[in-house]
Amino acid sequence: MRLVPVEDIKPEMKLAKSIYHNNNILLNTGVKNLHRYKDRLKNIGINYVYVEDKYSTDIKVDYVIKSELREKGQKKIRSFMEDIRFNKSINVSQIKDTVSDIVDDILNNSDNIIVNMLDIKNFDDYTYEHSVNVAVYSIILGKSLNYNVRDLNKLGVGAILHDIGKILIPPEILFKEGKLNDEEYQIVKDHSELGYDYIKDAREISPVSKAAILSHHERLDGSGYPRRKSGDELHDFAKIVAITDVYDALTSDRTYRKRWPVHEAISYIMSNSDQKFDNYFVDKFVRNLAIYPNGTMVRLSNGQKAIVKEQNSNYPTRPILRIVEDAEGNEMVETMDLLNNLNIVIDEVY
Ligand SMILES: [Fe+2]
Question: How far is the CA of 47 from the centre of ligand 1 (A)?
């Protein structure tokens, strides 16, 4: 399968991965004549879909965790946040169980790499999907730091709950299209303190998980918020979630901008490491990342268009490709290993 922008869907493509909207299946795997749904998908904010076509039948896309688990995680975090909105008592054990399942899934999968999980994103569900993504990325990073299961669970709980305070921000501000004014931006910034206030007395949540909720927007140099903490004042979990949060936000489509390609998000984070982000964690994170995940469509420096077919382990910028178009735009089908073609680089990601 491969990932295509919705506007590039062709009649011969069929859907390779179900599309969910508001936790319901909108389109099932295998749906044909996908092009008929283009406008509808665009309207609800879905910009990319996984498809099967003649170029991509043998391309395997990696999943970081089982998709059922991801959907379950989104449901749980949604109902948790709705309880907060309606000022009900919160059910921490459901969140803990979900995180524990995610940790198990990640630990049982021997070599997890972080691939951006953008396929079913849409605006309404953004916060829930984002919460689960940040938890998954943080747990994978924690695994590579050799954290034990208990710490992975605490990190995962902090990560999945990091943005719970957003439910207390007026939706007209949170989902405003276009730029926020200063006053609105200040209100949005309150979410970390609001979220922390809501759960600070919950004894079932570890203080280190709470640190991630309160301090995920703090930056190493003290330039973050809400309390302008810096350096050693920040718990490692807050430093980790700061990185995974920004990474997922940048690589997601938002109402006001399109997602950034993975390599651009990485260079943004790397260029800010040591000032804003912890260098050591950034380095570990980047080593676990698939820069060009399988199924991604790319343009090469020689003008050819290709689909990423397979990764070359230890060489994340030089995957094996399926060339589908020559520089003049004519169809061609050929396999190319970028490790054997060092004069060619990936120039652009679609
Ligand atoms: Fe946040």
Answer: 23
